[in-house]
Amino acid sequence: MPRSKPVLRPGTSVLKNKASGVKLHGTQGGEGSRVDLEDAENWGRARTLIKPDDQLELSEAELKEEIARVLTIRTPQLSEGLVIWSHKDAAFVQRAVPAAGVLVLDMPSTCLHIDSAEAREQAAYLGSAGRITLAETMTVTKAVPKAVKKESRKGGAEDEEEDEEGDGEGDGDGDGEGEGEGKEHAGSLSDGAGDAPVQGSETNLQKDEAGDGQAKADASTEAIEGAGEGDEAGVEAGEGDEASTADGEDGAEDGDAAAEALPSRPVKKVANQFNFCDRAALTYNNPYRTLSTQTEPPPRDTFSEQVMQWIIYDAYAKDWEDKQAGKEKEVKAVPKQFGRQAERKLDERTNPNSSLNRSIRAAKTIERMLNQNTSDDIAKDCRYYEDGSDEFREGAGTLLPLWKFFYEPTKKFHVTNICWNPRYHDMFAVTMGYLEFMKQSPTGAVCVFTMKNPSYPEYVLHTTSSVMTAEFHHEQVNLLAVGLYDGSVAVYDLQLSSTQQEPVFRSDSVHNKHCDMVWQVTWGQDTPDGELNLYSVSNDGQVFNWVLTSSTLHQTTVISLVLERSAPVAGPDGTTLTITGCGTAIAFHPTNPKVFLVGTEEGQVFKCSTEYTSMYLLSYGAHHMPVHRIHFNYYLPDIFITCSADWRIKIWEDGRTEPLFVFDLHCSVGDVQWAPYSSTVFAAVTLDGKAHVYDLNVSRYQPICVQNIVSRKKNRLTRLAFNKKHPIIVVGDERGTVTSLKLSPNLRVKPKATKKQAHLTPHELEVLKMDKLLALVREPFILQRPADTDQPPE
Amino acid sequence: MGDAQNEPKKEEGEKKVLHTYALVRYCDMVDEMRTEAMDLSANACEKHSTNNESAARMIKENMDKKFGPSWHAVVGEGYGFEISYEVKHLMYMYFGGNLAICVWKCS
Questions:
Q1: H-type helices in A562-613, by residue range?
Q2: CB contact under 8 A, A301 and B98
């Protein structure tokens, strides 16, 4: 049959391709070409019957065992031990084995192995009909319906059986050819050439008998059964058997005929890529519609002109004239403006005769006049009033309040320090900040007041942090060193402060500054090069020296206030921390500019030298609470006084670790200062708002004056400063107010020279006075007799 | 597009200030286009100082490229014209002391 031939060939070829061990040799060939093919392919296989000597003797069971031929992409001959010299590693490295495989096509298959669990599942799901269709789909599609028809024709009612029959045949076939998927090919074989399956089964039988191990016993028996059933079922099978010798096309023809005769059963198809059909649907075409719009054309205009050479010439001439005129105007206009601006700048900055400066000066004069008028009585008191009652009081004096100085915007601040100007005796600087840690503000100020104008500060310097301390330079009195709460140090020039608020020097806020608030700054002696320098002491336990170079503050560490009493403490991560004291006060020795004292928050006072950065000359266990002030006596350079929050004032002699005098004021002492006019007088302020004045010459135990300056409930006194020339002290409180007080005559008694001392200067008299007192309290130095080596021991 | 009708001498004895800069007589273009057109006209007239026609061609072609088609340009020393143009697309300028250039767009 011409139609079935092309069907058959691919069928067989599929078989051959898939079945590795084909045993269909020596057939009595109906299909000449097929036999030839098989012969050709199995030529070698036939010869395997001659066993090599070393062939394994396998048992029946072992022979039946299926061994799938596995193809790998690896080349077995390829050596794995290839190495290559690596210059990078200076060693032999394993060489990568080149990939032997080339992936040409990667396509996930939809085919299932018939024996696999999934296939069985699917078969069970689809039922037996499905199995057939499954088989069909795996083979050439055209052959399928014939097989079904042919077999179904055998018994109308026994469709199922017939299916199984077909399966059986297929099994026989497939297994006979050593293939597991035989069932799938059953259809194609049985229909494609009716003889083929029978042939297969027969050969199987033969082979089994012959003891050929390639066929499975059960498969072959199935095949036999299938064949048997086929025989029993009817003539068709018999025909098929007979047709084994005859032409396969006849069988196929029969099959066709049978197919025509019998109604076809509905067949469920499993969709896959080999089984598809075209489908088409016609949709409606959307109706067309025309839509049009019209826009307005871009606006047009007409333009007309005449071109003549003279017109062009005239136009140029006119334009040129206009340009010249414009240039002249510009030339005139520009310098005028510049001139004005420059003039104005000059005026404002430097020219003292400018209208602005003149008006300022006039305003100041008027202000001073007004102040003089309004506080005329105070001014007179300050100058002339002496408390007459002092004559009747022995050893007691009073403080006469004069002006109060405050600046409205800084009324909430604490007065943190007061410093008199060394040259202008009416001028003092008041620093505004906060002494409480919790109550800091992002601003601060330095107000420079003059006694001639109590209503308004002469200069106000606003800062970005609380100001803790300030000091005028002793020579260049316009320079004001300022220590800030944020740890930085700045130097202001008051001469420039009317025009610029920025300090002339300021420590870098990142690299060089204290890590904690600066408690005190003090100017040091100028360096040999004539550079100004200042010292600052801070809560971070460092004393820095700042040298004012041309543009910057150059910082060096003078000393770190390491506490002697405590050994390095082990930190959390194994490091050791040296505990530093928190410096709160600093004072330089009046005669030896290299020696200075530093008070700490721990109460200790260290005597240090600028020459040594790591050792103390002496350390005093002065107080138990923060030291607020250290002040050297104006007359005796070795006598200094300290005050502390532990209520005590102590007077020390340099070199003695025990104080000479101790005074207990029953309240935290904010500040203590020696009087500049007497060697034995000092004044102190306490937090309860009292000012105390002592004169050791009058009483070594009692103050000669205690006076409430501010209300005890509302306010506290913080700082105090003696005027160097006038008998005036100023005290600052926590409300940003500075009160000036005049000392009554009893508080400033000068020593009277006896006839013997007539030749002595007042200064020497003061020294004598103090020495006399000190002699009373000094423990006499015990003279150690040097060990006399010459004298033989007796 | 270019006309060259007459070439009167511009030299006048007494004051011989010869202005050759570009003098815009009338222009309603936006600034960008205006500077572009001025530069272009000046360049074209300098390049083709002897041939007004090629100067006009160059102006027209470059303007077409830059600002879309249908520009027209007239370069000449003496002519009269009445044109209709798209608003904001007209420039009329003098150049080189004796040339009048009119550039406009009208599609």
A1: none
A2: no
The H or E element containing residue A498 is none
> What are the structural domain ranges in chain A?
399-775
Distance set, CA A436 to CA A343, A466, A521 (Å): 48, 11, 19
Query: Are the C-beta atoms of residues A648 and A664 closer than 8 Å to each other?
Result: yes
Element housing A556 (H / E)? strand A553-560
Q: Residues A397-407: what's their mean pLDDT?
A: 87
Residues 6+ apart with CB under 8 A from A402: A378, A381, A382, A728, A739, A740, A741, A742
B17 Cα to chain A: minimum distance (Å): 8
The answer to whether the CB atoms of B87 and A299 lie below 8 A apart is yes
Which residue type sits at A756?
A: K
Q: Is A21 exposed, middle or buried (0-12, 13-18, 19+ CB in 10 A)?
A: middle
Nearest CA of chain B to the CA of A294: how many Å? 17
Give A-chain residues touching B106 at CB under 8 angstroms: 300
Min Cα distance A297 → chain B (Å) is: 9
**H/E/C letters for each residue in B33-54?**
HHHHHHHHHHHHHHHCCCCHHH
Is A308 in contact with B23 (Cβ distance < 8 A)?
no
Task: Tell me which residues of chain B, numbers 26 to 45, contact chain A at a CB-CB cutoff of 8 Å.
Answer: 26
C-alpha–C-alpha distance, residues B18 and A316, integer Å: 9
Q: Which spans in A423-531 are helix H? A: none
Residue pair A535/A521 in contact by the 8 Å Cβ criterion = yes
Domain ranges of chain B: 20-105
User: Lowest-confidence range among A344-348, A394-398, A738-742, B88-92?
Assistant: A344-348
CB contact under 8 A, B26 and A301: no
H-only helix segments in A100-247: 117-138, 144-154, 159-176, 182-192, 195-210, 217-233, 235-242
Name the residue among A438, A504, A501, A440 with its Cα closest to residue A473.
A504
Q: Which two three-digit tokens encode residue A412?
A: 């909430």
ipTM of the complex: 0.81
Out of B85, B94, B98, name the one closest to residue A303 (CB).
Answer: B85
Q: pLDDT per residue over A613-662, tens digit each?
A: 777 888 888 888 889 999 999 888 888 999 998 888 999 888 888 888 89
Q: Do A303 and B8 touch (CB under 8 A)?
A: no
Tokens 């031929």 map to which residue?
A69
B82–chain A Cβ distance below 8 A for any pair: yes
Alpha carbons A325 and A683: distance in angstroms, whole number: 80
Whether A11 has a pLDDT exceeding 60, the answer reads no
- Segment A41-67 shows an average pLDDT of 71
Question: Which residues of A are less than 8 Å from B90 in CB distance?
Answer: 301, 303
pLDDT grade for A271, boundaries at 50, 70 and 90: low
Query: Which band of pLDDT confidence, cut at 50, 70 and 90, is reported for residue A714?
Result: confident
Domain A399-775 has CATH 2.40.50.100: no
**Interface contact A301-B87, CB threshold 8 A:** yes
Q: Which of residues A365 and A395 earns the better pLDDT score? A: A365
User: B92 and chain A: CB distance < 8 Å anywhere?
Assistant: yes
Which is it for the CA torsion A352, A354, A357, A361, positive or negative?
Answer: positive
For the beta carbon of residue A615, count every other beta carbon within 10 angstroms: 12
- Tokens coding A552: 């910057």
Return the CATH superfamily for domain B20-105.
Protein Inhibitor Of Neuronal Nitric Oxide Synthase; (3.30.740.10)
* A761 neighbors A769 (Cβ within 8 angstroms): no
Structure tokens at A43: 């030529």
**Residue A289, both tokens:** 């519609």
Model pLDDT, residue A95: 80
Q: How confident is the model at residue A683 (pLDDT cuts 50, 70, 90)?
A: very high
**A423 CB burial (10 A radius; 0-12, 13-18, 19+):** middle
